[in-house]
Amino acid sequence: MANILVRGFNAKRRLAFSSGAVAAIVLAVSLVFSSRATGAESAPTNAAPPAAGVEEAVSTNAPTTAADLAWQVAEDAFDPPPHPDSWQTNPPSITEQKKFMLPFVLKGIAAAKDFYTRYPDYPKVVVAHVKEYQLSGIASRMGETNLESRFRTLEKDLGKWGLEEDDVLGIRYVTLQQMAELTEAEGQGPYFAELLQGALALRKDFPKATEPLEVLMEVAQKAKDKSARLACETLLDSPITDEGKDAVRAVLKQLDSVGKPLNLKFTAVDGREVDVAKMKGKVVLVDFWATWCPPCVAAVPSLLDTYHKFHTNGLEIVGISLDDEKSKLQAFVDDNKMDWPEYFDGGHWETKIAVEYGIKETPTQWLVDKKGNLRELDASDDLDAKITALLKE
Fold first, then answer.
1. 286 near 342, Cβ under 8 Å?
2. What is the torsional sign of CA 73, 77, 80, 85?
3. CA 138: distance to chain centroid?
4. How much is the pTM?
5. What is the tens place of the pLDDT at every residue in 199-234?
6. From CA 310, how far away is CA 384, in angstroms rounded?
7. CA 353, CA 376: separation in Å to the nearest integer?
């Protein structure tokens, strides 16, 4: 994620939002079940004094009252269930994961509600409220859409349980990440849409916080769709530094380039002259990569297979290397018999073409159609299918 250097604010949290792999339903739900994931562990307890003996019981972890015993039962309900042994050899589908986990999520919601209804003055009652909030959000993303309105009501009520504003922000920020991980299983579009919706809501409710801006920058730089555009527009109207706004404008340049001719011209490291505008009639894959990037290196065998599979039918590859050592790049290209031209200027993340087009992660792959128009900003998923479709046009 780019450093947006927000003026005047001190970020207190740095949670990683990764879109690189589909999130596991079980992992996301387990994080919510765990009491360590609520964000409420450092929050103040309910203002009412505890019942006699409760304070001692809490400090010694020895349940001595009915409330203590009830809390222990509630915590047991919050514990994530063990995975079925069969999942070790037969990984479940998303639908199967949801079907398995949903009853436990609903059980956790019921346990939280039962506890805070019966023991509203218990010192840890705020955790029960937070559990209901988080688990209701998770359930709504697992098919229980009737819980969406309850989740939003609980979200508005977070500040009523003795929580400080910063605690509320932290809980909502963690919950946003967990819910986005669930929707990521449905694809990148729903994942970034969830992040965008949550970030805009946080931005509205916490206008001085940096966290919403960080999420918006994540969406702006990685979504590659309408979510990215809205995130960019919001960021340009936010108190971020000139450096941050330059990064956002570079993303907008990418988005605005889709469907238009790609102006990409350079002299490759091997002396070949490259001009994408003169490659009409070909489908061109533009690969932003580097030898210091492990995922890039891991993708080379597959990329070579794609090249050999489609090259005779009209596919060309153009590499944009973010390497800083020309000799290392050349040796790698030669050893792996990568026959396509490579751009190199030694700039690393400051590589001229990468900066011009706002490239913030590698590998990044674009596709240009036979008319010379940029068609894909994120071609890596189903690459062969996308190439096949463009070759048929």
1. no
2. positive
3. 16
4. 0.70
5. 999 999 999 999 999 999 989 988 888 899 999 999
6. 9
7. 17
